[in-house]
Amino acid sequence: MTLNQIFTLPGIYNTLLEYFGKRNWWKAESGFEIMIGSILVQNTHWSNAEKGIRNIRRSCLLDPERLYQMPLEKLRDLIKPAGLYNQKARRIRAFLEYYKTIYNFKIDEMTKQDSQILRIELLEIYGIGEETADSILLYALNKPYFVVDKYTRRIFFRIGLIEEKIKYNELSAYFMQNLPGDLTVYKGFHKLIIYHGREFCRSSAPRCGICILRSRCEYFALKKP
DNA sequence: GCCCAGGTGGGTA
DNA sequence: TACCCACATGGG
Length: 225
What we know:
Number of domains: 2
CATH architecture of the largest domain: Orthogonal Bundle
Number of helices: 14
Order of helices and strands: HHHHHHHHHHHHHH
Strand content: under 5%
CATH class of the largest domain: Mainly Alpha
Oligomer: single chain
Structural class: mainly alpha
CATH superfamily of the largest domain: Hypothetical protein, domain 2
Number of strands: 0
Shape: globular
Largest sheet: none
CATH topology of the largest domain: Endonuclease III, domain 1
Radius of gyration: 19 Å
């Protein structure tokens, strides 16, 4: 196998999978927890977002109806460790408003809805942009949308596979067109990109992402001629 | 003490 | 349309 063959999306996916293996990932208790977590993790380290989720769970509020009844100030206090708490409290409230109005807090009803319509609906909610919408679609509702985040953009630009200013939809389409339309691959690849990004591709180390990933690819290229 | 994190919306030119 | 900027806590 040549380096060019390794540097395809399936090749990179397999390389990262061999390097990182299967790791523990956030074990959410429900789709609803994933929806709230997707908002809390916006521009925030996961460990902080998790504290917000934990506070909500401890208060027995990890339930759409109860969380909806919660005064905004109280919600704000619970999610404080996640940072950006004023904005995020309003965003969670806006999402709950939509979830109640359209789906009566029933995730099964939401899952039955057409994926494209769901995505349009989610994007109309205050505080839900493309990444958060796709995160909810993929992880909470098991709809095949590839989640593109800061790490994805940074890593694949540094490897040289995409342009720096590529639009979200173009980058997402690039992944979906070059990977099997498989939920396991979409979820797995996104997680691996995050692992790689956290360890090797921080913004303050502009070259290491390329070096590590390229060297791993070269290593596997030699290992599997 | 400084930099950064799994974004988003609003303002301005 | 394309840039800026605010938002905010906690870990390294």
